[in-house]
Specification:
The complex is a heterodimer of chains A (329) and B (446).
Chain A lengths: L18 H23 L1 H25 L10 H11 L7 H16 L12 H12 L1 H4 L2 E2 L13 E2 L2 H8 L7 H4 L6 H6 L11 H13 L6 H20 L7 H6 L3 H8 L10 H21 L6 H18 L8
Antiparallel strand pairs in A: 1-2
Helix pairs in contact in A: 1-3, 1-10, 2-3, 2-4, 3-4, 3-5, 4-5, 5-15, 10-13, 11-13, 11-14, 14-15
Chain B lengths: L22 E3 L5 E5 L9 E2 L6 E2 L4 E4 L8 E2 L3 E11 L5 E11 L20 H10 L12 H5 L10 E6 L8 H8 L1 H15 L3 E7 L3 H10 L6 E6 L8 H9 L14 E5 H13 L5 E7 L7 E6 L4 H7 L7 E6 L6 E2 L13 E6 L16 H5 L6 H9 L3 H6 L10 H5 L6 H22 L1
Parallel strand pairs in B: 1-14, 9-10, 9-12, 10-11, 13-17
Antiparallel strand pairs in B: 2-8, 3-5, 4-7, 5-6, 7-8, 13-14, 15-16, 15-17
Helix pairs in contact in B: 1-4, 3-5, 4-7, 10-13
The chains are: A mainly alpha (329), B alpha/beta (446).
Chain lengths: 329, 446
């Protein structure tokens, strides 16, 4: 008696939810949007996804095993999630060797060189996306058209994303956005995802559903996505009311580009977002404002990924000053 | 909308396995071991010697110092040893060991079972009887009860008496059963405490998962002025003193201050029952309700247990210790203490004994913090456990103090919820000890 008794500090029970299960829930939440993109873009999307996932996990294993010589953590699901997120940020049919570079940047540079899971300041998949966008601007903005050439691996018919098209067209003198938008797919198609774009940015509705699933499962809280989306809606509503000939309406901005993907899956990345609800709201507002500033006035048609990375850098500062109110203080 | 505290908290599966089991008496053990430090404050001073004959209810150790409490013999028998024994703290402490011979109570005690509802004694007498009976907070804090009745001269006058019938700890049902079985006595106890404090209002807070207790007590107070039953939302740690006060009177006890600061005095329902027995029946605190529970037990039960009874004796009464037991907890799973073995005695603060099977006894291996903020979300004191753990680990004592590490009530919510199984509370406890040491050294330096 007594020798097999375990003594430890309280509490003596713990929740069933683990870091690993949280990572897998995020992957599950992303599945509908990923599968839809397979349907819309065909083989090109499937190949990009497989390569991205395999190499993200592979690099984590190789670097930890042979360079860092630490126990590998590939089973925790975080490398898998980075792989899925990176794929969702790339156009279908993106060259394989460039994906491999992206995976190396995401896992090797943005994650492991900072100390691995929990220590990275910037979202690894977004660092890789921005790296690729700056390094290979042509390939990164070659968007296959929806339903065209689904069985082809390369040289698919390409076109602009709705945001890219508007940005380009508005440069023309005297153009009226209301006329220009007539040549875009209608809102229902944009909402469902039958448009050109990167693998993960096309279906606002499925990303939204997945996001609600994450809130329901208590993986994320509402603070970041709601503050991002409301800020974007409010900002674009003001601009649209001021000059509807130059600025698109709020709904257009909500359902296009990487906003849903960014708001629900990238900005809410546990490691790189603030801890307190107040801090999360400020973080979300910052992302919303920066996104719209880039969309309106920047050189790129889309700004969600830059906005999130910039706000990632502010997280330590936000955590320092926006704390939860302490009881009785 | 049920009342509750606004910040933090969480839902832990409540596993109240023994809530339908009436409190049973248990036969006396062969020997009892009575620790002389069963309360917060100075240990009592032993006044018996080896080979002395003692009777049930007789004082064997006297309160020493302002914060201290009397200890009584729970049985009739012979003192066989005065020595140090292992107690629930995991250390050896002085105890009086008594061989049990009979159960012959001292004469002053009224052993009749009828309920005596007339409160005839004066305020001062109430305080005196509570002090004589050695009553301490039975919710687990074991703070000597009479001291809360002695309001310092310059302090705010108490406005409301709050009775804690929340029992938010999973598994434990001792308070619940007591409310069901002794409602009249509890209400009289409340009236006694109201008289002693000179307050006209009292509220009994009960978590809404004990609807039968809410119903029974509500019926009993129908014709009594000033007492209110407050059903509370089921949320851990609703039974924390500060959380209970916040939920019922919506005031926050300032950090480092006592409930009296906001005009409240809080007693646990078990303590309130003991107050009734001390004042109306002259009965010292020598027994209490203990829940013996766990999923591996055939029949989780509630018992009336004499102080000093070895835990082993209780476990035999529920059919022995199951083969696969990995942990024995004194208390509930969230705040209870893991015991080294079965020989330690039941004390005034023992509300339950919980057995946890081997496969559930080890924590999962620790993973890196992924900054998910769940610990911040659940902390009922508005602290940042992830940060306090890092500060404690790095011995940043002054920063720990500035981040209010001493406000931590050790409810365990952070460690419970952490998906990376990080031992947040373990580190916070170390940090608190460091801060207290630091504050003491500063004080001594001046």
């Amino acid at each position: 008696m007594g020798n097999n008794i375990i003594v430890s500090g309280s509490p003596h029970v713990q929740t069933e939810q683990t870091t690993k299960s949280m990572m897998y829930h995020v992957v599950i939440a992303l599945m509908p949007a990923l599968l839809l993109s397979f349907y819309v873009f065909g083989l090109g999307a499937i190949i990009v996804s497989i390569v991205s996932i395999v190499f993200c996990i592979g690099f984590e294993y190789l670097i930890q095993k042979f360079i860092l010589k630490v126990p590998t953590t590939i089973s925790d699901g975080s490398a898998l999630l980075t792989g899925v997120l990176l794929a969702l940020n790339l156009p279908a049919g993106f060259p394989v060797w460039m994906i491999i570079i992206g995976a190396l940047i995401a896992i090797g540079v943005a994650k492991l060189s900072f100390g691995g899971l929990g220590n990275n300041i910037f979202n690894p998949a977004l660092v890789a996306r921005v790296f690729l966008l700056i390094s290979f601007p042509v390939q990164m903005t070659k968007w296959p058209e929806a339903f065209a050439d689904r069985m082809k691996l390369a040289d698919a018919t390409t076109g602009a994303t709705p945001l890219g098209f508007l940005k380009e067209a508005l440069r023309g003198e005297g153009s009226d956005i209301r006329e220009l938008m007539k040549s875009l797919p209608d809102y229902t198609d944009m909402f469902i995802g039958f448009i050109g774009g990167s693998i993960g940015e096309i279906s606002a509705v499925l990303l939204l559903l997945g996001g609600l699933y994450l809130i329901w499962k208590k993986i994320i809280t509402w603070h970041i996505p709601v503050s991002v989306l409301l800020t974007v809606a409010a900002f674009s509503a003001v601009m649209w009311l001021v000059d509807p000939t130059q600025y698109a309406d709020p709904l257009f901005h909500l359902i296009t580009g990487g906003l849903m993907l960014g708001a629900f899956y990238m900005a809410t990345d546990l490691v790189t977002s603030p801890m307190s609800p107040k801090g999360q709201i400020l973080f979300g507002i910052g992302i919303g404002l920066l996104t719209m500033l880039i969309r309106y006035f920047g050189a790129y048609p889309e700004g969600v990924s830059f906005a999130i990375l910039i706000m990632n850098a502010f997280v330590p500062l936000i955590d320092r000053f926006l704390k939860v109110k302490k009881f009785g203080v | 909308m049920l009342k509750t505290f606004p910040k933090g908290g969480l839902h832990v599966p409540d596993n109240k396995l023994s809530e339908k089991e009436a409190i049973q008496s248990i036969n006396l053990p062969k020997t009892v071991q009575i620790p002389i430090a069963q309360h917060i404050g100075a240990p009592a001073k032993i006044i018996v010697e080896r080979n002395d004959k003692v009777r049930t209810g007789q004082v064997i150790a006297k309160s020493s110092g302002f914060i201290s409490a009397n200890i009584h013999s729970p049985v009739t028998g012979t003192v066989t040893k005065i020595d140090t024994f292992l107690d629930s703290s995991g250390y050896k402490n002085p105890m009086v060991s008594i061989r049990v011979e009979e159960d012959n109570w001292i004469e002053e005690v009224d052993l009749s079972t009828e309920v005596n509802s007339e409160i005839t004694v004066s305020k001062e007498e109430i305080l005196q009887r509570i002090q004589n009976a050695g009553i301490v907070g039975l919710g687990g804090a074991t703070f000597p009860s009479h001291i809360k009745l002695m309001v310092p001269e310059h302090a705010k006058a108490p406005e409301i008496l709050l009775i804690n019938g929340v029992e938010c700890e999973p598994y434990l049902t001792a308070d619940h059963r007591l409310m069901l079985e002794k409602p009249d006595e509890i209400i009289i106890g409340v009236q006694i405490l109201m008289k002693a404090l000179g307050v006209s209002r009292a509220a009994i807070g009960i978590e809404n998962n004990k609807k039968d207790a809410i119903k029974i007590l509500s019926e009993r107070i129908k014709n009594i002025k000033g007492i209110e039953i407050v059903p509370l939302k089921v949320k851990y740690p609703q039974g924390g003193e500060k959380q209970l006060i916040k939920a019922i009177i919506k005031k926050e006890v300032p950090a480092g201050k006592l409930p009296l600061e906001v005009g409240a005095v809080v007693y646990n329902v078990g303590t309130t029952f003991a107050v009734y027995e001390a004042v109306q029946k002259n009965k010292p605190l020598i027994e209490r309700v203990v829940t013996v529970t766990g999923k591996s037990l055939v029949k989780p039960s509630n018992f009336w247990v004499r102080i000093g009874t070895p835990i082993e004796h209780l476990l035999q009464a529920v059919g022995g210790v199951p083969e696969n037991t990995g942990k024995i907890i004194n208390g509930g799973p969230m705040m209870g203490k893991a015991l080294k073995d079965y020989t330690v005695p039941v004390t005034k603060g023992t509300s339950g004994i919980l057995l946890i099977p081997k496969e559930k006894s080890n924590r999962r291996p620790m993973q890196p913090c992924v900054r998910c903020a769940k610990c911040v979300d659940v902390c009922p004191m508005g602290l940042e456990p992830f940060l306090l753990m890092a500060l404690s680990d790095n011995k940043l004592v002054e920063r720990s103090k500035d981040d209010n590490i001493l406000s931590c009530i050790e409810c365990g919510s952070c460690s419970y919820i952490c998906p990376s199984s990080r031992p947040l509370l373990d580190y916070i406890r170390l940090g608190k000890a460091d801060v207290n040491k630091f504050l003491k050294s500063q004080k001594d330096g001046k």
